[in-house]
Amino acid sequence: MKLSPLIPKVAAVAAIGGLLMLALGRIGDLADERQARFREAERSVEQSQSSRQALLGPVLLSHCVEEWETTVGEGKDRKTQLDKREFMLSAVPRQLAVQAAAAMEPRYRGLFKVNTYGIRATLRAQWAPLVALRPQREHAGSTLKCAAPVAMVAVSDARGIRHAAMTLGSDALGVHSGTLHASHPRGFHASLPEALRDSDEPLSLDVSLELVGTSEFALAPVADDTRMTLDANWPHPSFGGRFLPLAREVRANGFSATWQLSSLATTAGGDFLRGAALCLPNGSEVTADGAGDSAYGGPRRTSAIASAAADAASCIESFSIAFIDPVNPYSLSDRAIKYGLLFIALTFVAVGIVEVLRQLRVHPIQYLLVGAALSIFFLLLLSLSEHLSFGVSYVIAAGACVALLGFYGRHVLHGTRAGALFGASVAALYGVLYALLQMEQTALVIGSVLLFVVLAAVMVLTRRLDWYHVLEGAAPQPLQPATPAAGG
Q1: Angle between helix 416-438 and helix 390-412 axes, rounded to 10 deg
Q2: CA gyration radius for the chain?
Q3: Strand 53-72 and strand 216-220: pairing?
Q4: Where are the domains of the chain?
Q5: pLDDT attached to residue 440
Q6: How many CA atoms lie within 13 A of 73 on its CB side?
């Protein structure tokens, strides 16, 4: 049986598709490498300025020592010794109102832009009469001494504190570094008058804070009633943590959001009192030395379930805001590359159909050159998007490839009109790809519809072909309509 000349050609085109798939894989690896370099730039900014920030407080503390005498031994070995216990009294606010404004302050490391922010916040905390800070003796006849109460505010990275001030009524308090709390050492504190411990009047304290951070900000709602309002000049917020905002408004030039939580809805206050850790917005724990078990400098947790369980047990509940860049050129380029093989296959199918219908001869090397031009688009897109906006980069890369393929198709397909139609079809493919990248939620349905339309077009165009003649190497013959049976 004579072997059809079409079979070796199909095998050669398939081999070319495999080579182009390897090329797309290498371009994808390059996109991953550039993404990793961006993460390195982000880590560099975090190490040089400040990392993601989590805020807790203000909270009142008082360090106490109780001493008592005990008698040990019997007879001549009997003696009196002095025992003591040290403990910390804590009181979370009854009400906490936070009014904050965030302004983006981007930092650059070479080609890479890292989103950092500066927050100006006013915190007003109110306590009921400080019964919780009135110490109780556990041993009769003991001596109990407590230091003056202090108000402390904890942050995850103290390097980001630009300014901090506390006022009690109309009196400014002296602010000092550190919190005097073993579990949350990073932050600042101010000493309060000793007389407040025995006062029957509610206490109100105002804190003004300027804080710098990278990418994300979180607040631990430890008060019985917490309300926070945040305004920012960044139009792409991502709200996360344990609680979404009660109200939010996202505008073209920024956003505003309001959270309101009670102790009935959160365990943050109880978490703090039992000594749970303040965690970074990405979920990693801030230890006493400020280190975090995070993807930015610490070991990764291997189990998502174990991570969630550990975070719930060891971290204070919080809510967060991430200042994201929705047009990340590396993630969008990576998504585009995933469609590369499909687009090459569709183009090859289109060329093959034209070759069969118009009885042309397209050499496998010409298929290779067309596929190479389609592949180089993704490399152009990746490299240009590091210098220009993604939309502009896409237009330039797609326009260059469409012009090249239209020019080349004019000669391969033997006709100006055929070349123009070929270039227009490639432009349509790039347009569909851009739509897929922009509409992530509907990418699957658009891709499915596209494949169905292409299959339907191929079936309609080849519905009258005699494929036996085509596979035998003869000129394609359209199928003739069936002749009605006599007497039918």
Answers
A1: 150
A2: 34
A3: parallel
A4: 6-38+329-471, 52-67+82-323
A5: 62
A6: 7
Distance CA 393, CA 366 (A): 27
What is each CA distance from 368 to 27, 128, 277, 418, 468, in whole angstroms? 17, 78, 58, 19, 27
Give 383-399 pLDDT, tens digit per residue: 888 888 888 988 999 99
Residue 459's region, left for phi above 0, alpha for psi from -120 to 50, else beta, is alpha
What is the Cα–Cα distance from 223 to 127, expressed in whole angstroms? 9
Instruction: Report the C-alpha gap between 226 and 53 in whole angstroms.
Output: 18
Position 307 scores a pLDDT of 43
Is the pTM higher than 0.85? The answer reads no
Name residue 52's amino acid: R
| 3-state helix, strand and coil shares in percent for the chain, rounded to the nearest 5 | 40, 30, 30
38 within 8 A of 112, measured Cβ to Cβ: yes
Name which of 18, 37, 118 is nearest 341 in CA terms: 18
- What confidence tens digit (pLDDT) does each residue in 431-477 have? 888 887 777 666 677 777 877 887 888 788 777 777 666 666 555 55
Q: Is the pLDDT of residue 227 over 90?
A: yes
Does residue 258 register a pLDDT over 80? yes
Residue type, 198: D
Q: How far is residue 36's CA from residue 33's CA, in Å, rounded to a whole number?
A: 5
Report the C-alpha gap between 382 and 370 in whole angstroms. 20
Secondary structure class of 26 (helix, strand, coil): helix
**Start-end of H helices in 250-328:** 268-273, 304-314
pLDDT at 286: 56
Q: Percent of the chain scored above 70 by pLDDT?
A: 85
Task: Report d(CA 390, CA 330) in Å as an integer.
Answer: 10
DSSP 2: P
Pairwise CA distance, residues 320 & 230, whole Å: 11
Give CA–CA dist 429/433, Å, rounded.
6
Complete DSSP assignment for 396-455: HHHHHHHHHHHHHHHHHTTSHHHHHHHHHHHHHHHHHHHHHHH-GGGHHHHHHHHHHHHH
Spatial separation of the C-alpha atoms in residues 315 and 424, rounded to whole Å: 56
In the structure encoding, which two tokens stand for residue 357, read together? 């219908």
